[in-house]
Write a structure and sequence with these properties.
Largest sheet: 6 strands, mixed
Organism: marine metagenome
Shape: globular
Number of domains: 2
CATH superfamily of the largest domain: Periplasmic binding protein-like II
Helix content: 40-55%
Structural class: alpha+beta
CATH class of the largest domain: Alpha Beta
Oligomer: single chain
GO molecular function: transmembrane transporter activity
Protein name: ABC-type glycine betaine transport system substrate-binding domain-containing protein
Pfam families: OpuAC
């Protein structure tokens, strides 16, 4: 946003929300730009929108991300070396290790409105991972409500070395912390994406590497065509992503305590990233770079 506003001179506003409704807003023209369209999680709607000429793909938002619905802490596998597959979740000796609901293992899963939730639950195009892997009598999904609540629940369980079956993704600051500071995590063996139609987990296999795309509504393409090159140059590598996440994690609470809104906290994170990193300077032409640097000098 800071680059678009101060570099290119376009006013911006921010809308926070779940991936599926945000993408529908993009298709209808209520939203101009979406920075995270997760594939294959949103593949059906994405392919339909691109084919209909409703949106224009303009680049990749993140490095290819990993994600899994069936993660456990390394300390659980250390204590139970034979627990290494989703098939083991069908056996009473392993189910007994986890928190249960109605005799089923509780899966801390994706949030309603996220594309990954459709991959877990299924829809008209496929049964979803839980049913597709034959786990419907053995696993029940619990919606954590928000990404923050999901992260907090996972970190708390690891800190107490409690049993947990959960969904998460990376590269993220929390995933890195779980791996390097909290003992590690294990991705239970699942059917390979190549065994499913279109490599889609909705048919009962693991997630392939996720492409996370940027797309513009066609009205914005007409109004600000120079932004296309900017987003095509965008390179939000894991190094960039974790630098921003770590600054946000270290400073967001203090800023909120001072009365900063969520939007203001994100803006401050962006400013901190731009001031302390050089990579973004290759994404824009010289005149835009000069405009952004002039604005940063006043911050």
């Amino acid at each position: 946003r800071y680059i678009v506003e101060h570099g290119y001179g376009y006013p911006t506003s921010q809308i926070e929300g779940s991936t599926l409704p945000l993408f529908q807003g993009l298709r209808k023209g209520d939203i101009d730009l979406t920075m995270e369209i997760w594939l294959p999680n949103q593949a059906a709607a994405w392919n339909e929108a691109v084919k209909a000429g409703e949106v224009l793909p303009v680049g990749k938002s993140l490095e290819d991300n990993w994600q899994s619905s069936f993660l456990i802490p390394q300390y659980m596998q250390d204590a139970n070396p034979e627990l290494d597959s989703v098939e083991d979740l069908k056996e009473d000796q392993f189910k007994a290790l986890f928190e249960q609901e109605g005799g089923k293992v509780l899966l801390l899963g994706c949030i309603a409105g996220w594309g990954c939730r459709t991959m877990q639950d299924g829809d008209d195009s496929g049964p979803g991972q839980i049913v597709g892997m034959g786990l419907e009598d053995h696993v029940v999904l619990q919606d954590p409500g928000t990404s923050g609540a999901l992260a907090a629940a996972v970190e708390a369980a690891f800190a107490k070395k409690e049993p947990l079956l959960f969904y998460y993704w990376g590269p993220t600051a929390l995933a890195l912390k779980l791996e390097t500071e909290m003992g590690g995590l294990v991705d239970l063996e699942q059917p390979d994406p190549s065994t499913c139609a279109d490599n889609s987990p909705i048919h009962g296999c693991s997630f392939p590497a996720a492409e996370v795309m940027i797309a513009m509504n066609m009205e914005l393409v007409d109004d600000a065509p120079e932004l296309i090159a900017f987003f095509k140059n965008w390179d939000w590598s894991a190094v960039n992503q974790l630098a921003a996440e770590n600054w946000h994690g270290a400073n967001s609470e203090a800023l909120a305590d001072k009365g900063a809104s969520s939007e203001e906290v994100f803006t401050a994170t962006g400013v901190a990233y731009l001031k302390n990193n050089e990579g973004w300077k290759s994404w824009v032409p010289a005149d835009v770079l000069a405009n952004v640097e002039a604005a940063l000098a006043k911050e």
